[in-house]
User: Which sequence fits this backbone?
């Protein structure tokens, strides 16, 4: 068990090229475009409920169906915050979608261990595998492939260049002291310094993840993925640093009841409408923000900078953290599922994906389609990163990850202390 989890979540090597991160599944037997003798219907769950992202999947599915007569894919789009819970319920019931969203790491390792994901090792197109490169490791467990990455999603702080200029901030913060100074300067202008959608838990936990990345060594982060214990003092220190930062009151009023990505009042919406100057988030954020601006266009003054260095930390100050979105096949899915994964990973479809989602595609050949300035800055930082870790809730699996995320919300709400955060995580790990 620990071997599988460790293999799936190991910190990935240098640079972007080395980056990693209900509907019935009752497919009709037979082979559509896969060379079989009958029609095939597959179910497909994704998390793009509106706009260009939803349109992309509709167009891509239509193109695949046209190229594969006899194959039908039934699409169901599910709100991102609902996806993990609904999918887990469907997987446990045995009535899961044939094609489902996966985030790699420990979460996928748990699905594989439960016998719910299909081994795709011999089904990945060699040309696609070459174009993806080592990033496919986020979906690899004990040397076998159980999914296909669509985008790489490094995290950092997105900000409004206009609001920074209004506050007299001439350069982006590189240390926590400088970030606190920026918070104070923005507050003086009457704008919320940092948007946070803590109602969804994981955005609040991202702050802890990054403090841990700066304070814990690479070896400590990896060791915890295997041992499932969090005894190093850096874990408590990370919570202490977060508590101290939160005491500066950097977040928007009512952040504990603010959602992350749903509507103009969400944390992404606050940044999109210049009601907050910063947000810590992954590389999907430009696309989300674009859908929440008044004209539903990319935010013209959106910038990005890496999470600042933390004094005295054992982690490399240039290390990065992020995830990878992708898709897996249910264990009972027909061969056409793997064919669809290979199809949308081709360069032309990955370029369209990058444009629709305003994000970084996993296919390296398609990364020329990345034109958003903030995303280009992320790419540059990744090319220089000494190592990249996946999100901690992905790395440590759903049970531990959920406990960690909730513990951070409790910390910010004043319902626990730093030692209580680590205790909650250790208790969840002990329960399995």
Assistant:
């Amino acid at each position: 068990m620990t071997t599988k989890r460790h293999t799936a979540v190991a910190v990935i090597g240098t640079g972007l090229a080395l980056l990693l991160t209900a509907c019935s599944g009752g497919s009709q037997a037979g082979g559509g475009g896969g060379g079989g003798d009958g029609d095939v219907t597959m179910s497909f769950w994704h998390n793009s409920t509106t706009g260009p992202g939803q349109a992309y999947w509709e167009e891509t599915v239509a193109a695949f169906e046209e190229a594969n007569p006899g194959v039908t894919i039934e699409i169901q789009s599910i709100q991102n915050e609902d996806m993990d819970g609904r999918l887990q319920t469907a997987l446990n019931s045995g009535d899961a979608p044939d094609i489902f969203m996966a985030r790699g790491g420990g979460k996928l390792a748990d699905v594989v261990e439960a016998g719910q994901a299909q081994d795709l090792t011999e089904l990945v197109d060699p040309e696609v595998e070459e174009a993806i490169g080592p990033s496919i490791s986020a979906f690899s467990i004990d040397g076998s492939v159980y999914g296909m990455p669509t985008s790489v999603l490094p995290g950092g702080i997105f900000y409004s260049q206009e609001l920074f200029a209004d506050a007299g901030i001439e350069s982006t913060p590189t240390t926590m002291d400088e970030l606190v100074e920026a918070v104070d300067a923005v507050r003086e202008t009457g704008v919320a310094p940092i948007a946070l959608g803590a109602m969804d838990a994981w955005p609040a936990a991202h702050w802890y993840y990054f403090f841990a990345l700066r304070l814990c060594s690479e070896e400590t982060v990896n060791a915890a993925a295997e041992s499932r214990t969090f005894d190093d003092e850096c874990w408590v220190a990370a919570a202490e640093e977060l508590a101290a930062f939160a005491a500066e009151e950097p977040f928007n009023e009512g952040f504990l009841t603010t959602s992350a990505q749903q509507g103009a009042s969400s944390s992404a919406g606050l940044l999109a409408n210049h009601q907050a100057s910063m947000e810590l988030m992954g590389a999907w954020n430009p696309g989300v923000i674009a859908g929440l601006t008044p004209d539903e266009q990319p935010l013209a003054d959106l910038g990005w900078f890496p999470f600042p260095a933390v004094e005295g930390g054992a982690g490399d100050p240039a290390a990065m953290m992020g995830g990878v979105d992708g898709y897996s096949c249910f264990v009972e899915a027909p061969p056409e599922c793997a064919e669809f994964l290979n199809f949308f990973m081709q360069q032309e479809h990955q370029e369209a994906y990058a444009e629709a989602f305003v994000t970084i595609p996993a296919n390296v050949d398609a990364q020329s389609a990345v034109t958003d300035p903030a995303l280009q800055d992320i790419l540059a930082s990744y090319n220089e990163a000494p190592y990249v870790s996946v999100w901690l809730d992905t790395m440590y699996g759903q049970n531990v990850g959920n406990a960690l995320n909730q513990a951070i919300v409790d910390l910010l709400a004043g319902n626990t202390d730093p030692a209580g955060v680590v205790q909650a995580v250790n208790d969840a790990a002990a329960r399995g």
Q: What stands out?
A: Residues 24 and 420 are 41 Å apart (CA to CA). Confidence is low (pLDDT under 50) at residues 1-36. Residues 51-67 form the longest helix (17 residues). The radius of gyration is 21 Å.
